[in-house]
Amino acid sequence: MGLLLLLASALLTSHFHTGSQVDAQTAFTIRSVRLTIEPGTDVARGTDVTVRCQAAVSSSGQETLTREYTIYKEGIVVYTKTTSSSEDFLYPLSEARASNSGKYKCKVSIQSRSLESNAEKLTVTGLSDPVLHLKKGVVTEGEDVTVRCTAPGETGSFFFYFYDNSKEIYGVQANTNQTETTLHFATGIHRVHCTYTVFILPDSFKSNKSNTVNVSVKELSIMPFLKVSPQSMIYEGDRLNISCSVRGYLPSSESIELHLSRENDLLSTGYSEISHSMLAPANVPELRFECRLTSGNVVKVVTNNVPVTELFSTPTLTVSPAEVFQREKMMLTCKSQRYATERINESELTYTLDPEERARPTMSRGVFLSTAPPEDINYTCTAEAKGIKKQSQALALRPKVSVSTPFISVLGTAILGQTIQIHCDTAKGSLPINYTLIKGYEPVAWKTVHLFSEKAVFSITINKTEDIKQYMCAAANSHRGELLGERLSANVIEPLTWATLSAVPDLDDLSEGQQLHLICKVKGSMPVTFKWYRVGSAIPLNITTVQQKHKDYHVPVLSKEHNGQYYCEATNPAHIMVRSEELSIEVRLALWKKALIGGMILLVVSLLVLAMCVLHYKSKRDAAAFYDGKEGRATNGTRNSMASLPADISNRSSYSIPATV
Fold this sequence. Notes:
The protein folds into seven domains: about 100 residues, Sandwich (Immunoglobulin-like), CATH 2.60.40; about 90 residues, Immunoglobulin-like (Sandwich), CATH 2.60.40; about 90 residues, Immunoglobulins (Immunoglobulin-like, Sandwich); about 80 residues, Immunoglobulin-like (Sandwich); about 90 residues, Immunoglobulin-like (Sandwich), CATH 2.60.40.10; about 90 residues, Immunoglobulin-like (Sandwich); about 70 residues. With about 650 residues, it is mainly beta. The N terminus and C terminus are likely disordered. The strands form 13 sheets. Strands 2, 4, 5, 7, 8 and 9 form a six-stranded mixed sheet that branches. Strands 11, 13, 14, 16, 17 and 18 form a six-stranded mixed sheet that branches. Strands 45, 46, 48, 49 and 50 form a five-stranded antiparallel sheet that branches. A hairpin with a 7-residue loop joins strand 45 and strand 46. The longest helix has about 40 residues. Keywords: Disulfide bond, Glycoprotein, Membrane, Signal, Transmembrane, Transmembrane helix. One of its GO terms (molecular function) is transmembrane signaling receptor activity.
């Protein structure tokens, strides 16, 4: 037991001691990885190539590190090896082939660390020449020929091509360096060779030509035979008999099959002999028949081109007159211009019209009378003789609509003295339509309307309002002549020429409290828009539009505030504004105010006169009393003193005052 404990202790001690040494000895870094290709990156086929991977690793101990080398070609792993050697890792490519071409890269991994080199591209030029092998060089017509093409020593993905007399006849893809297939050749001598292409993505390399092998194909003594009766002078409608048969001997046991056809139509099938009968169709100047023999891989064909003469030409359908109007008479003519006089005469040609409900035939062959319908219609006609029918091209009949009575109108507003646009139009009628503007009974202007978007517009000037009624329109689009419309009836606006402003009551009779009517009057067409202004203000006092040539602005109660200058402006649809002269308004006092003021003045004057009289009387009385009390005193207050007399008395030089005793 003690021995076991000692051994366990020793092992544990050894384990922990060794682990610490590894940790101390495995400190390292991969400084660089470099890949080189020897002897070079561009080599010829068959060269021994070495891909060298050099890893520069720095470590802190003496223990050898285990390295894993991985070689990549075009990003795909091609080789991996683990080694403890610090020597360069070599990846050999013995006798390099084109398939070895590509970009190579090396990765070095140590423990959990790794580092990759830069990529280097290897290009191997040159491919081995392909080898062609045939099992048989001489075969019979229809016999298979087995061929094999080999690319010696090459690897990769291939595409093989086979050629007959330098013309590619077959191609196949293969994952090995050889392919085998069977080919079929026509009779004669054939020079066969092959080539191949190696695909090394993203590039491809093409080989040289292989050896050439001759293949001789002997013809079988068997042929199809085609017979057409009659052989010449065949007209449309003639019966043809066609036969297809086999001539010769077939040595093998292969069955024979015959096919008789015309263009893409299979007429008959069989084994030894087949036939077909038909009428030479119309409008086919040449018939091509084919007799085809098939036996295994053998296919033989014989053809015969049979010309066919026209029995009569395709009819043409025309209409008269050239311009047809709805519900008018018209004539339709169906005619074949040529026919084979040696086979038929003109009386044998019959003509029909489609649709025939609207037309009736005449005594003349191929001529039909009808009435043009109110809608568009397509007509065709058919000529027939000896069972051959030929149809004309469709005649698209688009009956025109006769113009209706034109009407006349004014575009916009008709203003006297200004240019007016008159529009002529119709409710219906096919284009083009010719319009004529007439004044009185004389044409003055013309216009042709070719498009629906166009308008017949004429510019005129009216100097008198009554002149507007002299104009009318005429319209025409057919041979039947013009249609005349009614005369123009339109309102002509006369521009305003002057404006006057007057007042009611008279300006001399205006006083406070009265009503005032400022009447603006104009000359011109209605409606009229009136505006009244007070000088000094751009805002109108009133605006109104009326169907009359005068209008008033009403002031219900006048006051001194209404004193000032007034004027009016007016416009009508001619948009020419006229302005009146200014009118001066002066409002006087009311009569009762005048009477009151007069009475007050009289009262004041009376009071003043009365006051003066009282004062005058009082002053006289006071003066007499004073004189009587003071007369004759001395200056010291005696009666004889002059000092105390009133001024008017003391100054009286002519008066002598008697002394009083």
